[in-house]
Write a structure and sequence with these properties.
- By secondary structure, the chain is an alpha+beta fold.
- The chain has one domain (about 5-90): 2-Layer Sandwich (GMP Synthetase, Chain A, domain 3).
- The chain has four helices and three strands, in the order ααββαβα.
- It has helices at about 5-15, 25-30, 60-70, 95-100; strands at about 30-35, 40-45, 75-80.
- A three-stranded mixed sheet has the order 1-2-3.
- It starts with a helix and ends with a helix.
């Protein structure tokens, strides 16, 4: 399966992951910084959390990994949680800002 198709399906799967404290999916929140798919189907995801003390610090990366593994064509998944650049509300999509009343 083509890497661009896998990437699109991974992003769609990530839209079903929600921060437990914010009723917006993590992709629209801007917590996913990068999704890379190599030709073998291995997926690398760089993500962050809203803060280092986020109560979902253990569960959210594991959920991201599990949902990504469930995408057809994915052979391996690496999830790196990074703190630089730090997350801030400006990273949210327009839809997320509207939903949370930031506009």
């Amino acid at each position: 399966m083509e890497a661009t198709i896998i990437e699109a399906e991974v992003i769609e799967a990530l839209r079903s992951c929600f921060d437990p404290e914010i009723p917006v999916n993590i992709y629209e929140l801007g917590l996913i910084y990068d999704v890379k798919v190599d030709p073998s189907g291995a997926v690398g995801i760089r993500m962050t959390l809203t803060s280092p003390s986020c109560p979902a610090a253990q569960s959210l990366p594991a959920e991201v990994q599990a949902k990504t593994r469930g995408v057809r064509g994915v052979t391996d998944v690496t999830v790196d949680v990074v703190w630089d650049p730090p997350w801030e509300p400006s990273k949210m999509s327009e839809a997320a800002k509207l939903q949370l009343g930031f506009m």
